[in-house]
Each structure stands twice: as structure tokens, then as C-alpha cells.
Amino acid sequence: MKSYRKKVWFFFAVLVFAMTARSIVAETICADARNGSDKNPGTNDKPVRTIGRVAEIVNVGTEPGPTIIKISPGIYVLAGSVEFGGVRPYTENERLVIEAAVPPDDPQWRPALMPVILYTEDPRRQGNLDGLTATYGIKIAVSHVTIRGLKFLGNPLARNWHNCILRIGDNLDDLLVTQCVFIGDRDVIDIYSAVLATGDGFVVDHCIFRNCHACTVYWDGPRGIAGRDCAMRYCIVDGAYISGVWTCQTAEDFEFHHNIVTRSEYFWMRKRIDNPNKYRVHDCVVAGNRHYSGYGVESGPTGLTGDEVTYDEENVVREGRVILEKDKRARNYLHPVSGSPGSDLGAGLFTSKP
């Protein structure tokens, strides 16, 4: 009898495990700007066409489990902000992942395969054509999100502050932006802040920023509390008009390492707050910038920091000329060429040696 009961309980346990395993199979939504249609369901053989339609599908979902969004090569034009929200309970292991169909670590990857996100929103009201405006690309309104392998361009509207990825919310946590490229030009397709988030768990890694104003902005934490578990690592910043990194209220566990910041106005910008702060910077190249550390407000820099802001440096190169690959067909486009300062740091798009 005991043996029979053991068999019954074992069968029941296996059945429960199998049902649970099936319940967490990732929902996959596919987008293809060239061959898709927003009338399609978003399957691999019937992809949708726009990022906006992808967000609509995600936001009405209520079942638990991860969501994987696969974005095929092509140009995705956003005429307005796209927000990923809804009530689905994502977790650290069951995430919302928005990623390129061919990621940079794929042996077949090349720069031309990166999906391109371009913004064309014009928020000006009639009669206010010269007024200062602001536009926002992808808004994240849920926790536990990964954005991987996408190329972001700016907005061509003059006198406009454009932000590519934005997360604002007191209760949001865990946003990873990885293996993405942000390319702006203040005279053509301006990017004011490439990625900006409040709160905890904001990590930017293996990204490239070129000709942006403020590249990574770690804004105030919830209710003014310092954001914890935040990091910037293995990134390349070239030609930032304001700074490579901008911090406000960040906890002392903030990680900054294996980054290259060159040809920028400031290496580091921070909000002026009452309490002094100390940052640890290690295994980086910080060379060819006009200033090292400064204070700033939303409209830009307000001056240099003093002794109240300190940087604990270890293995930081401050001199030399960083040379980046300029051939757009090369796999290592915008990465340091061999022998350049920073070529041995592992900074750039690839998480493994290409």
C-alpha cells in the first residue's frame, strides 16, 4: 500500500511539474518592418509591422510568464511614444525581452542587420513652430525588462529634447539595456538623452553612444531615495555633447567599469545635491574629454564639481587617442581598432570575443 501511495504521489508531482513547465513557455511576438502587417497575429510566419502594434499585444496580456519580442532587420519609424506596460507580472527570470532577431553575438551578425528605430514625432502646436519641445521613444512602465541589439537614431525636429528609452516610476525595478547603439547628431537627428531611468536596477552594458548629449542618465530614485543595483559597464561613448554618464541619486553600490569615454564635453555629470558622493571607477579609458566632472541641470552643465565629489580610480587611462573603426561594413564598426587605448577592455557590443 505504501509503495502504491508513493507511486501516486510521484505521478502527481510529475504532472504538476509538467503543467508548470508548460505555463512558463515564453510568449513570442515577431516584428518585421519590411514584410510584416499589423493585421497579423505576430507569429514567426505572420509578423506584425510596427513596434506600436507589438506594444498593443503585450499590454493587453494578463497571463504570467516571459515575453520575447523578436525584431527583424529593417527601419522602424515611431511617429509617437510607444509604451510597454500592462499588468502582466514579469519576474527576474521571466522577463519582457525586446531584442533583435539577429543579436550582435551571432556569428552571422553584421552592423547592417541591426533593427533601426527612428523617431519622427512633431509635438509642436500650430503657431508655436519655434518652441522647445520634448519627445520620447520607448517608454518602459513595467519591471524586469531587457532591451537588446537595437540601433536608435534621434529626432530630426529642431529645438527638441529627444529621449530614446525612458523608465519613470516609483515602483519599477530591473531594466537592462544591452548591446544597443545610439547615434545622434545635434544638427540632424538629435538625441538629448539616450537612456534615462529612475529608481533601482538600471543597468546599461555593452552599448555604444555616439554624438548624444547625455548618454546614460541615472535619475532620482523613488521619492528621492538613491537608486540601488545600478551600473554602466563595457560601454563606448564617443563625442557626447554633455557627458558620458549623468548621475543624480545613486547608491554607493553603483558600478562603473570597463567603459571608454572619449571626445566628450564632460566625462561625468551629476546633479547638485547636499550630500557629497564618492564613485568607484575601474578599468576604464577616459581620454580626450574637455572636462572630467561637472554639475548639471536638465538644460545642461552649470559648472565643474569640487572636492566634495571624489572618484576612486583603479586602472583608469586618462591619456592617449582612442581610434574607432569607421568602416560601416566592418563587424567592429565603432569599436577601438587593435592597439588603440581601450582595445583590450572588452567594451562594445560583443559579450564574447568576436
Account of the 3D structure:
- The strands form 3 sheets. Strands 3-6-9-12-15-18-21-23-26 form a 9-stranded parallel β-sheet, with no helix packed on it. A 9-stranded mixed β-sheet has the order 4-7-10-13-16-19-22-24-25. Strands 1-2-5-8-11-14-17-20 form an 8-stranded parallel β-sheet, with helices on one face.
- The protein is built from 2 helices and 26 strands.
- The protein is mainly β and 354 residues long.
- A hairpin with a 2-residue loop joins strand 24 (291-297) and strand 25.
- The chain has a single domain, classed as Pectate Lyase C-like.
- The chain starts with a helix and ends in a 37-residue tail after the last strand.
Draw up the topology in text.
Blueprint: H1 2-23, E1 27-31, H2 51-59, E2 67-71, E3 75-78, E4 82-84, E5 96-100, E6 116-119, E7 133-140, E8 145-148, E9 151-153, E10 160-167, E11 173-178, E12 181-183, E13 193-197, E14 200-205, E15 208-210, E16 214-218, E17 231-233, E18 236-238, E19 243-247, E20 255-257, E21 260-262, E22 266-270, E23 277-287, E24 291-297, E25 300-304, E26 309-317
Parallel strand pairs: 1-2, 2-5, 3-6, 4-7, 5-8, 6-9, 7-10, 8-11, 9-12, 10-13, 11-14, 12-15, 13-16, 14-17, 15-18, 16-19, 17-20, 18-21, 19-22, 21-23, 22-24, 23-26
Antiparallel strand pairs: 24-25
From the structure above, extract its key features.
2 helices, 354 residues, 9% helix, nine-stranded mixed beta sheet, nine-stranded parallel beta sheet, Pectate Lyase C-like, single chain, mainly beta
